Amino acid sequence: MAAQKINEAHEHIAKAEKCLKTSLTKWKPDYDSAASEYSKAAVAFKNAKQFEQAKDAYVKEAEYHTENKALFHAAKALEQAGMMMKDMKRMPEAIQYIEKASMMYVENGTPDTAAMALDRAGKLIEPVNVEKAIDLYKKAASVFENEDRLRQAAELLGKSSRLLVRLRRLDEAAASIHKEKNMYKEIENYPTCFKKTIAQVLVHLHRNDFVAADKCVRESYSIPGFSGSEDCVAMEQLLQGYDEQDEDVVNRVCSSPLLKYMDNDYAKLAVTLKVPGGGKKKKSPTVPQGGAGAPAAAEEDDEYEGGLC
């Protein structure tokens, strides 16, 4: 079966080469037909599990579609070449082909398709190279943002934010979440803004920046429905407990379902949050029963407890 498919692929390549030949009666190569034959050859090679040869055929298909000014089809062929690289576990090369395809989609005037290709590339590379996945998700978000597709842009930016948290690049994560939140605010998706506020607070507290965390909550009071919501109440309690070094309050908020069932990377921030000072609650000063002079008297008793020498 495999041998038959390989022979079939070579027959299509021979036909493609014939389409490219010129003569006295045929002045221009038939790029469209050649691309079609290379596409058929690529499929035959793929079915025979000859992924390297299939990749080469897809690249040739893309080349002749480009010659024919058919950029969309050229980009599709390059994406398929990338998939062949993926099947051979050669992920960096796979991503290169898909990124090149995305640029062709943009050039062709189909930016949505470009962004979706970058998103797919991000998913492919994420298990082996998180930093590259972050870059791809950011690029995809930027393409959608340029097209005023803010919901899609925010979703892709969200993927990037979570991976930045996973890598502990918290300064970048804080900026990314802030941008996400503004996008959701602009499209009036206020409940998601509430969740982004929680994510902001957790990131800032892990950055040891209480002031920034507090500012995020205060700014969110202007978002319709936030004040008095369970998200708002939880964050107010968390910040108060953190500021007062009350470990019990912080643990109670961080282990609540509201935070426990967030995206996994944020849930981990919640369960690993430590209060400053070792978690010992600040005690309010109290006046002993002996009145204002009692502390001094106690100090004198201690000083001479063993008697005079």
Q: What's the level 1 CATH class of one domain?
A: Mainly Alpha
- Bulk shape: elongated
Series of H and E elements: HHHHHHHHHHHHHHHH
Instruction: Give the averaged pLDDT, no decimals.
Output: 89
End-to-end separation: 107 Å
What is the radius of gyration computed over CA atoms, rounded to a whole number of angstroms?
Answer: 31 Å
Structural class: mainly alpha
Range of helix content: over 70%
Largest sheet geometry: none
Tell me what the CATH architecture of one domain is.
Alpha Horseshoe
**CATH-defined superfamily of one domain:** Tetratricopeptide repeat domain
CATH topology of one domain: Serine Threonine Protein Phosphatase 5, Tetratricopeptide repeat
Number of strand elements: 0
Per DSSP, what share of the residues sits in E-state strands of 2 or more residues?
under 5%
User: How many helix segments?
Assistant: 16
The poorly predicted ranges are 283-309
What's the gist of this structure?
This protein is an all-alpha fold and 309 residues long. 73% of the residues lie in helices and 0% in strands.
Question: In words, what does this structure look like?
Answer:
This protein has 309 residues and is an all-alpha fold. The chain has a domain at 1-191: Serine Threonine Protein Phosphatase 5, Tetratricopeptide repeat (Alpha Horseshoe), CATH 1.25.40.10. 73% of the residues lie in helices and 0% in strands. The protein is built from 16 helices and no strands. It has helices at 2-20, 31-47, 51-67, 71-87, 91-108, 111-125, 130-146, 150-166, 170-186, 190-206, 210-220, 230-243, 247-254, 257-260, 264-271, 294-303. The protein starts with a helix and ends in a 6-residue tail after the last helix. Residues 283-309 have low confidence and may be disordered.
